[in-house]
Amino acid sequence: MSETADFTLGALLVALADAPETAGKFESWAGEGANKPISGGEIAAQIAPEELSALAEQAGLSEAEVAANLAEEIPPLVDALPAEAAKEAISPVQPVHVRSQTLHQASTSVLAQPNQLPSAVLKLLQ
Q: Which residues of 56-90 are buried (b: 16+ CB within 10 A; e: fewer)?
């Protein structure tokens, strides 16, 4: 994942959709059927170390706790995204920054729904 100051949930979702080791899992969340689990280690591997450290500090958690929290919450979040946003994420036709922005906007919209209670970690990425 790129080491930019503009780290967002959308950027993390694009990284998970693109990484060979997590792409199949992302597709399971975006499609029909059961969501494949993801580990905190797989999440952490897609976040630049300084970004993960900053998230942990802001959330008052360890880096492992932040990654584990995201591993629990990202699959159902992607599952709840509008189909077109999820499809765009796994289609490398669009540039990464466009895919990231689309996913960020879609995920922020999902998290704003009254039945969604995002964790402190997800709130930091909004």
A: beebebebeebbbbbbebbbebbbbbeeebbebbe
